[in-house]
């Protein structure tokens, strides 16, 4: 059974930093594309970042590029998202996810997500 558990969220001032973690189990972590997605209040799921293999196979949404860094620890089956220069618009519940895809209406779906961790950026 796939199990994803996020942690590390919290309240931070604009310009601050946070590091999110995700503990993964129940599947082959090293051979799967892993994602961070987020959901702001009243909005749909938004893709944030993906990692294929190790750190060289990363991609980011334009809104977070150069501010967020995704990484993984194969030995510990852990996924991370280091977030710098946080903005109020980054406020959302962040999910570690796998098997994500877009529907015909461009909405994002992920077959597996954790329970999420709340990130609030506010002064």
List its traits:
seven-stranded mixed sheet; 123 residues; mainly beta
Beta-strand portion reads over 45%
**Count of DSSP-assigned helices:** 0
* Biggest sheet overview: 7 strands, mixed
Indicate the percent of residues in helices: under 10%
Straight-line N-to-C gap: 40 Å
Question: What's the layout of helices and strands?
Answer:
Elements: E1 3-7, E2 10-12, E3 18-25, E4 34-39, E5 45-51, E6 58-60, E7 68-73, E8 78-83, E9 92-102, E10 108-113, E11 117-121
Parallel strand pairs: 2-11
Antiparallel strand pairs: 1-3, 3-8, 4-5, 4-9, 5-6, 7-8, 9-10, 9-11
Question: In words, what does this structure look like?
Answer:
- This protein is mainly beta and 123 residues long.
- The protein has strands at 3-7, 10-12, 18-25, 34-39, 45-51, 58-60, 68-73, 78-83, 92-102, 108-113, 117-121.
- Strands 2, 4, 5, 6, 9, 10 and 11 form a seven-stranded mixed sheet that branches. The chain has a four-stranded antiparallel sheet with strand order 1-3-8-7, with no helix packed on it.
- The protein is globular.
- The mean pLDDT is 95.
């Amino acid at each position: 059974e796939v199990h994803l558990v996020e942690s590390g969220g919290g309240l931070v001032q604009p310009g601050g930093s946070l590091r999110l973690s995700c503990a993964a189990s129940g599947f082959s972590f090293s051979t799967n594309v892993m994602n961070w997605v987020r959901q702001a209040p009243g909005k749909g799921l938004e893709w944030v970042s993906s990692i294929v293999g190790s750190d060289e196979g990363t991609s980011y949404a334009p809104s977070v590029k150069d501010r967020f860094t995704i990484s993984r620890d194969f030995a510990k089956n852990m996924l991370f998202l280091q977030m710098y220069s946080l903005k109020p618009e980054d406020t959302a519940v962040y999910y570690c996810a796998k098997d994500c895809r877009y529907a015909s209406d461009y909405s994002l779906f992920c077959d597996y997500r954790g329970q999420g961790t709340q990130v609030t950026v506010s002064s």
